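Backbone-to-sequence.
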């Protein structure tokens, strides 16, 4: 029998053994994905691990657009037909109401914010117009019987907006209801969502909607559902609803994306509606605009549904004030120029020499200009009385007597031959 002193020691040892023996369960944190297999995973899960897959950050343009669009809180409502209504016609006129979501077709850049509508497992229809806030569609070629309808407000790259009121689900019946062909209103229902382009451009968007999922994680270890995602055969498990961006193969040959809803033991939950396979077409060139690392201001406005930026015209620079012109300096009047050309009249008249001017009396009469007339040349001679006589030139006498137009006392200063008379 052990001594009383050893009892406390044995109790401590037993407690330590119990703590070591009990396995500790680890819960996956938000934003992480767990490769299939390994310790701590539910039983029944098998298949290749996701070692070749890598979760990466969204492209830079996606983050730009998300920040721009998260200021909106879209509300999507079903106007007609009402949920579970039986329509006795070969087509259904569907009317949805959308609020606070700027639908836009960005042309060459692709779709901006839009609404996606899916019937059963068909490819979703993407609508970028809502006149008066209403999305109107005519659903044709539907088989008679029951169908399920899902719709959601979508980002430009295709991801669903998960804020309250941004998604709806309903059931349609043509001619009559068919039991057991659609999930009941309270049963889980999985809708896989891929990129809006439907291609395998890297990184690949992996998104989904899950209605009526069992509540879980109310206490530690309470994991009631898992979603197994397989991309080209590589699989991993997630336990929360959050879009992922995965990078694996180059995407040139396309990709297959499978989603399976499992319970806590790893068993499929209603696999008819919760085991879905998507085929992604080969990557395209050029890549979508939202795959860029950065969008310019214009492309960001187009893809987010905002008004296009207005180019501000540069304000005209003020014209410089003209400098005052300097006052002209006063210009001195030009001095009169004395012409050095001789007077034409005085130039024709012979000018007396300085010597003659010295002997000319001060009472000399002014010289007047007389008209030049042609007079017959007469011969002057000295008569017997010593006076100068004029007469007709003798025949054969070629001596011409100079003739002057000067008269008065000026004539008396000249000799008969025209030379100046010496005093």
């Amino acid at each position: 029998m052990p001594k009383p002193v050893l009892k406390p020691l044995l109790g401590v040892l037993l407690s330590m053994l119990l703590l070591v023996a009990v396995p500790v369960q680890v819960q996956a944190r938000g934003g992480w994905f767990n490769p299939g297999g390994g310790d701590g995973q539910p039983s029944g899960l098998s298949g290749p691990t996701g070692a070749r897959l890598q979760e990466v950050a969204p492209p830079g343009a996606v983050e730009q657009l998300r920040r721009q669009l998260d200021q909106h809180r879209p509300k999507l409502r079903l106007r007609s037909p009402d949920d579970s209504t039986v329509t006795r016609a070969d087509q259904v006129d569907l009317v949805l109401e959308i609020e606070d979501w700027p639908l836009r077709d960005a042309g060459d850049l692709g779709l901006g914010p839009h609404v996606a509508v899916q019937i059963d497992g068909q490819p979703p229809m993407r609508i970028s117009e809502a006149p008066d806030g209403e999305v109107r569609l005519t659903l044709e070629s539907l088989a008679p019987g029951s169908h399920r309808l899902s719709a959601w407000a979508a980002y430009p790259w295709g991801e669903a907006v998960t804020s309250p009121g941004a998604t709806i689900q309903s059931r349609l019946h043509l001619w009559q209801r068919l039991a057991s062909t659609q999930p009941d209103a309270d049963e889980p229902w999985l809708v896989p969502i891929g990129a809006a382009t439907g291609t395998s451009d890297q990184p690949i968007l992996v998104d989904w909607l899950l209605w009526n999922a069992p509540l879980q994680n109310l206490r530690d270890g309470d994991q009631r559902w898992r979603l197994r995602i397989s991309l080209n055969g590589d699989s991993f498990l997630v336990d929360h609803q959050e879009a992922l961006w995965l990078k694996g193969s180059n995407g040139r040959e396309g990709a297959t994306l499978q989603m399976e809803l499992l319970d806590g033991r790893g068993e499929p939950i209603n696999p008819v509606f919760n085991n879905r396979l998507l085929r992604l077409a080969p990557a395209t060139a050029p890549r979508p605009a939202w795959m860029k690392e950065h969008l310019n201001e214009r492309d960001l406005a187009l893809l987010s549904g905002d008004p296009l930026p207005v180019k501000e015209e540069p304000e005209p620079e003020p014209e410089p004030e003209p400098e005052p012109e300097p006052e002209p300096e006063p210009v001195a009047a030009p001095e009169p120029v004395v012409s050095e050309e001789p007077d034409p009249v005085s130039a024709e008249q012979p000018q007396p020499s300085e010597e003659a001017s010295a002997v000319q009396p001060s009472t000399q009469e002014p010289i007047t200009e007389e008209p030049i007339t042609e007079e017959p040349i007469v011969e002057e001679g000295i008569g017997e009385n010593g006076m100068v006589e004029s007469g007709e030139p003798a025949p054969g006498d070629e001596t011409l007597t100079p003739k002057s137009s000067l008269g008065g006392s000026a004539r008396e200063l000249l000799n008969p031959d025209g030379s100046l008379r010496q005093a």
